[in-house]
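Before the break, one more example. Copy the sequence into your notebook; we will annotate it together after we see the structure.
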Amino acid sequence: MIPAARVAAAIEVLADVEARRRPAADALKDWGLARRFAGSGDRAAIASLVYDALRRKASSAWMMGEASPRAEILGALKQLRGLSEAEIAALFTGEGHAPAPLTDVERERLGVCDLTGAPAHVQGDYPEWLAPAFAESFGDAAIAEGRALANRAPVDLRVNMLKTDRDRALAALAHLMPVPTPFSPIGLRVAIRGDGRGPALSAEPAYVKGLVEVQDEGSQLAALLTGAKPGMQALDFCAGAGGKTLALAGMMANQGQIYASDTDGRRLAPIFGRLERSGARNVQVRAPRGAQDVLADLAGRCDLVLIDAPCSGSGAWRRSPDAKWRMRPGALEQRIKDQIESLENAARFVKPGGRLVYVTCSLLKAENEDRVAAFLERQADFLPIEAAHWARACGLEALAGHASKLGAGIRLSPLRTATDGFYVAALTRTA
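Here is what the structure looks like once it is written out:
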């Protein structure tokens, strides 16, 4: 497919996403299945265009003077791809499979690219209904944080310390030109290309052999901030696909025991293959079994309980830009209820002197500092660990300056740490 045809296809996919209010991945899959002539390179290029358009959906609509898939693509080509008016016009010729030619108004707006007077949620490219929450969480930095969340994310890898070290992993992946992550001592970062596409890691021997795992540096840091040590009894209460479970196994050098559990057994399904590839031998998966309490024997026994809580996912919008536009207030309210329940249920497994570590990939105060504060009010036998001190104790001196100013815990964000957005709070049980 020629570049202009890919642009036209991206507009078509965006129209399907908006008309049926469905995930972009589903619309892209259906588009590809219906058009077998499109090769893998075409599909990847179209997906990259679609996600770029969704990143800057609000600001592009303002800039172009209309909210439409065509306007979103035009804005993305200008804002994220850096194309000139002439370069964009060359893709919009109306010839063959190309989109219709630019109108005079479109040319004028592309030449100006003006967001003057736009409200904060438009400049920051986040949903209007979340504007109060962004203002509460970020204050004057709300727009800048939103813009950072609307940028592309690099490809971050966690080095599996059970099989190798960072220097050897760097050498094994040298052809991808990775660099060490600035905060995580076990991370590598691979830049994405100008078209927004990353490397095909599934074909890399270092990945296939389990030397590295795909994991954003923020997620790596959340795991490191648990302070897991060899010999501990640890519970990953919301393990999901096992990313942080694997990180804990590396930190504990296969010594001690990690219990990986989740209320939804389907989310646990990928963990088995990942455990085998990683070489982790100290992980016991506890999948749900109807009404049976599969964790009953762990009550009051764990040195560490990690809650990677269900949340809005606002911190991961760089990687899932369509999620922010599909999110609704009711969903946020449900996530908060889930977080309250997770904290209450997980607390019973922490032994006296043990730690409860609460993590979200959200940047909203309502899901983070507010939840910890409310939990501490209900649970007199838990106390927060001072964030800067805890970062230093975990060997992450550079994170001491990222202690939250809104309450307990540490905040990471694309703007401040060039990671996905994460919140981490460590609590200790006193009795």
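The longest helix spans residues 329-347. The mean pLDDT is 95. Try to locate both features in your own notes.
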